[in-house]
Structure prediction request, 592 residues.
Amino acid sequence: MSAIAKVYKWELLKLTAQKRTYLGVGAAILVPIAFVVALSIQKGGPNDIPLGRNIRDTGLATPFVVLFFMSFWAFPLITALVAGDIVASESHNGTLKTILTRSRQRGQVFAGKALAVITYTAVVVFAMAAVGLVAASIKWGFKPLTSLSGTKIAAGHSLGLLVASLAVYLLPLIGIACFGLLLSTITRNSAASVVGTLMFALLMQLIGALPGTEPIRPYLLSAQFSAWHGFLRTPADWTPVIRATWLCLLYIAVPLVGAYLVFLRRDVAGD
Amino acid sequence: MSDAIPAATPVIARDLVKRYGEIVAVNHVDLTVEAGDVFGYLGPNGAGKTTSLRMLLGLIRPTEGSIRLFGRDPVAEGAAALDGVAGFVEGPRFYPYLSARRNLRLLADYDDRAARTRIDEMLELVDLHTRADDRVGGYSHGMRQRLGIAASLLRAPRLLLLDEPTTGLDPAGMRDMRALVKRLANEGITVLLSSHLLSEVEELCNRVAIIRSGRIVYAGELADLMATATGGYRLSCTDLDRGHAIGLAQPGILDLRVDGGALCFSAEPGDVAELTIALGEARVGITALVAEKATLEELFLGLTEGDAPELAEPVLVEAAA
Prediction:
């Protein structure tokens, strides 16, 4: 096993031993369950959002609808819980000193942490979708999905589109996670990093809501959370998907490289 | 630094400076720790001991100066330069939500494959084998200190850097920790030990450096330091006034004064012998003659308080040669 793989393995094991991880994953899987329960006991529905009108037609619609709702603050917060903490808590507890005086280089330690954050982010998104799909399918069945263009998509194909949509949805969330990692590395303060990361995500949405910002809206990180709509059109619209891909890679790369450089050079003293 | 510096020398630090803005935490410090030393790094709180150790372990970058650990540069090489080096600064820190064994497994995975095979042995060595599967969050301070030693020894180090390892321990814990350090030193591990407990340094160390306000004020053999202490004598006799008068007339008797019913003075041993003969011939009985030496504490306080002179330079030059 390579050095980075060993660090990565232990970063995951550390995450599985911490309450905040379960808090994040738990929240991610409770939201779709609560959603299905609420729609089961109420008559109305989220008719104004993509796929909302057809939510009771098939269990496949629920994960898409929940993705929409959780993109505002729930997923950014769940992501920030771990991304903002992963370096800062070790600085605060002094364990960064412990691991940086062993044989692994700082770059390897950072890579392991970054991979663990990305893994956690993927887990919460896919866990939400899996639980939402199962819960909603139990209630409304695993039937063909009505696309955003109004055509029916076979259930099996819809499942494939769900996975693709989750992958694209993950990109801006990883961008937020990397921003959290940067704050965690710079501030060495877990609470400040978590709150700062959430503020960053909310600020993106605020900028997008301001009048006069129309030209830059497609390039805001928050706008990329709806890039998956392109998969649910007939024919598929690749424009938002491609834009989200390159744009999110920038949103990921800039803070990630920044955090890496800070981590390599920073003084590790008592915080 | 030239390539002629022997790679076997555990620690060579030259002209080490660490500035935080206007504050100079470490000011042109030179340190040499030879193989087999138990080297005491002494200084009052805030003198720069821990900052120096952090630089040695590559945790912080020196503003100026160079460091070599067994000939390797931790600033340039990072963790690779810590091969054969282990220790902790400001107390050992562990993941409180993991057991001691899991903490050591993690650290072993951050080292080489062989480290994993030594976990049980190390836990037994520090007498934590019965609590190895308990979470470290529930450990006492002393248990964490012992676990810190175990974690360091997993690396099978040739150099151990310990920052105040007995701080916060109860008397029995301090005794056990010192015994462990002695044992490790006897096994050939070079130890660099920072401390402000002078009795501990006297008991364990053969060489010391004393740092004050970021500057080294003494570095060298502990025995040499003790020898710099001004020798003094305290003499009690049957007739203090006559004894005092005889002392004043006796060549080589210096700083003679009456203090607490005794004569206090400094002198060479031969002159002391002459004084005793003179007193005997004058039929002044000597009831007690005690040679007094300054303690390490007095020397330490003398070097680290007030306008103490720096003794470091000649010794450092010799050590660096």
